[in-house]
Amino acid sequence: MSSADEILDAIDALPWKERLRLFRHIYDRVMRRDYKEFVGIDETFARYHKAMHDITGEDCTERTRRRPVVWARYIVAWQMTEDGFTTCQIGARLGIDHSTVSHCRDAVKEMLEYPRYYPQELAVFRQFKKTIQDEIHN
Question: Which of 9, 41, 64, 116 gives 20 to 30 Å between its CA and that of 26?
């Protein structure tokens, strides 16, 4: 029996609540904290910037208040906070203040909570999520 089999047997022997806690810890460790080590912020930002540009044709770093650009910026900032990057790191890449990144995150949360008020933005958001998921799986 290999050491991997022994580990799996030990996990199977855990009560389900402990097993769930272990899986959450592993997920958090791999997908959140260590994500920054596996894929740096510059590579992540470049990938998200390109995906958003391909979808909207807009540059999310452009200094403008045009709605499509603003929402492109909001969505990219939201996704990067979901990936565990700090507001200061994200703001430096987008050319905005860290408090503006927090506002971006809040705006996307509101859009997700009240989707009927943001149909165009939600369509862009869904396409963006699909694009980056396809990239991960390919």
Answer: 41
Torsion angle defined by CA atoms of residues 103, 109, 114 and 116, in that order, rounded to the nearest 10 degrees? 90
Confidence category of residue 112, pLDDT binned at 50, 70, 90: very high
Own/partner contacts of 67-72, CB < 8 Å, gap of 24 or more, are: 68/124, 71/121, 71/124, 72/124
pLDDT computed for residue 108 by the predictor: 97
Residue pLDDT, tens place only, 32-90: 555 555 567 888 899 999 999 999 998 989 889 999 999 999 999 999 999 888 898 89
In angstroms, the CA 82 to CA 67 distance is 22
With contact defined as beta carbons under 8 Å apart, do 111 and 122 qualify?
yes
Buried-state track 39-76, b at ≥16 Cβ within 10 A, e below 16 = eebeebbeebbebbeebbebebbeeeeeebbbbbbbbb
Interhelix angle 67-82/87-94, rounded to 10 degrees, is 150
Among 28, 41, 38, 39, residue whose Cα is nearest residue 76: 41
